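Friendly challenge for the regulars: who can give me the C-alpha cells for this chain first? No prize, just bragging rights.
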Amino acid sequence: MTNFPTPVTLGTDQARTRLHELTVIDVRTPAEYASGHLPGALNIPLDHVRRALPEIRHAAGRGDVLVVCASGVRSENACKLLARQGVTTATLAGGTGAWAAEGHDLHTPAACETRAGWSMERQVRFTAGSLVLVGLVLGLLVHPALLLISAGMAGGLVFSALTGTCGMAAVLGKLPHNRPHTADLNAALAALRGR
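First reply, four minutes later:
Bragging rights claimed.
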C-alpha cells in the first residue's frame, strides 16, 4: 500500500493571510471562474487537472498550492487526484462561496474579455428541473410511460446526493460555454511553469 500526501484544508481566514504566497488553482468551469474568483487564481478546470499535472507538480515544488472551487467538493477531488500523483495541495473549506460569504473580494475579468455564466450548481438545477417538467408534460400528454423521464431524474438526484458525485455536472462541464479556450488553458499552464 502506497502512502499518499494528505490534502490539507485551509479556512478562508488562513487562506486570505497566506494568499500572497500561495499558487491558487480554480478547478471550476471557465464560466464559473469568470463569474468571480480568488485574486490571482489560475483556471484549470477539474477535467484538465491530469493534463496540467507536470505544471502543478512544478508549482508545488516551489511553494504551497491551494485548489478552490465553488463549495469545496471539486477542489477536494482534485486534491485527492493530485495526492495520488504525489503532489501535496490544500483545498479551501467552503470554496469561493465561503470566501465571498466572509466578505473577501472575488475578482472578475473585464466585461469585454469574457461573459459571466451560471454556476455549475445552477446549471444542474435548471437542467434537472427542465427534464422533470418535460417528463411530466410528455407523460400526461403523450404516453404515461414517458413519466419514467421524471422518475429517472429523481433517481439520479438521489444517487447524486448519496454519493456526493454528479454525472450531470460532468456532462454539462463538457458543453462549449463551460470549456476553456485553448489559449486560456495554455496561459494558465504557462503561468504555473513560471512560478
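The first strand starts at residue 8 and ends at 10. The chain is about 50% helix and 10% strand. Your move, everyone else.
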